[in-house]
Amino acid sequence: MIGLYDVTTIRAAEEALQRTVPDGSLMQRAAAGLAAHCVRWLPHVYGARVVILAGAGNNGGDALFAGALLARRGAGVVAVALDPDRLHVGGCAALQRAGGRIRALNTITNLGVVVRQADLVLDGIVGLGAIGQLRAPADEVVEAANDAAGLRVAVDLPSGVHPDTGAVDGTAFRAARTVTFGAIKLGLAVGEGREHVGDLDVVDIGLGPHLGAPAALQLTDDDVAGLLPRAGDGDDKYSGGILGVAAGSATYPGAAVLTVGAALRMRSSLVRYVGPAALGVSSAWPEAVVSDGVPSEAGRVQAWAVGPGLGRDRAAEQTLANVLHSDLPVVIDADGLRLLARRRVLLQRRSAVTVLTPHDREFTAFDVPLGADRVGAATALATQLGVTVLLKGAATIVVDPAGRTYVNATGTPAMASAGSGDVLTGIIGSLLAAGLPPGLAAAAGAHLHGRAGQLAERAGALLATDVIAALPTTRDTLGASPTSTAHL
What we know:
The protein has helices at residues 7-18, 25-41, 57-72, 89-97, 111-116, 138-145, 194-197, 221-227, 253-266, 281-284, 314-325, 335-342, 360-364, 374-385, 420-433, 438-456, 464-477, and strands at 2-5, 49-54, 76-81, 101-104, 120-124, 151-155, 177-181, 184-185, 199-203, 216-218, 243-246, 271-274, 289-291, 303-306, 330-332, 354-356, 388-391, 397-399, 405-407. By secondary structure, the chain is an alpha/beta fold. The chain has 2 domains: 2-213, 3-Layer(aba) Sandwich (Rossmann fold), CATH 3.40.50; 221-477, UDP-N-acetylmuramoyl-L-alanine:D-glutamate ligase (3-Layer(aba) Sandwich). The strands form 3 sheets. Strands 13-12-11-14-15-16-17-18-19 form a 9-stranded mixed beta sheet, sandwiched between helices. Helix 16 packs across helix 17 (464-477). The longest helix is centred in the C-terminal third of the chain and has 19 residues, at 438-456. It is elongated and about 80 Å long.
């Protein structure tokens, strides 16, 4: 698992490490790693045109020292100083000794021309200490830099991205690559910040032994491969845990077909569907056991998936109440969430786990503010209701009642399509029935769902049935190839 850290934890680790090493050595390590990455990415270093956007403080210092290393290898390096009086003194001197130039921003007639001519633009404007909207002239500099045709690289994190929440209030640097130091900041993986990071690389500066607990975890392919249930020689159709599905209605018949299909594709164990036989589940999936009754009459199950396409009438509400009364693990989605928001009392008698999988509009039905801090919002709802919350989004967030947090790194924008959430519900339900803890079931389900979407996407288009079809191959290939550190 990959740890994602908040600023407080990163700062404490840096301070602890700095007490054990000579002054300035951490910056030198960071700059050396940054420069080494840039050398690999540039087609040629000698003669390359490099522009550094240099702010005050250590972030600018990291960029300036890296620029000095590139200048020594023959790159033409120009540092644009937003405030020349506050530049990192050591970094400034090192760049000038190496033959680089420093130009004050107020002496540049057209910054757009300068950055458009660059092969590499390094964003060293602000670092971990900057929270909130970029102020002038930083915002104007970033806007100009975002139009640069050359490689745009953020130093530690893109300027304008909140390091803990990923919030972007106004303008933010849009990097093609980000080189972060020591550990991955939470804001690089969540919120709008994730869309500004590009490809992410981590430079080890020695923080590891001093880092506290991460704020969140990211599962890798290998992690998920190790969690997925596998059929053995002695197993039968009951061994992997039986999932009950209560989904679909005359208005949304496809939801039942998708939820059941995803669950069946997850493993060889039994899936019981409870609902109107006319919805076509038997025709689509003859392997499912179909019962035209109520959940309490479905037969033995180990978990329930309820809600997709269920409707919101009294019959649907009674179905939800029946499922939750079973006191088995339950994953609730779509209409089930809207019904539960009206009748939260249904959770009070439960001792078994409950997983909610809302998108933004469904989340707000529970009267918990959903602002820029999506992890904080999901944590608030999980704590308030005593459930596991999977908050869907570009970076899906999972929080269990104890506050254990996972941030998903798989998927594609094409998965924002009809029925995709129904498929996810079937996947998570299957994992709950197999006995996985709720947080891991939700996190592993989101990871697998996203990977299947990536595999199935065709020219930017994707159907929910494509994701179901890709599940077996996705399961087989997880862990078969190296996993990148983030944005998997």
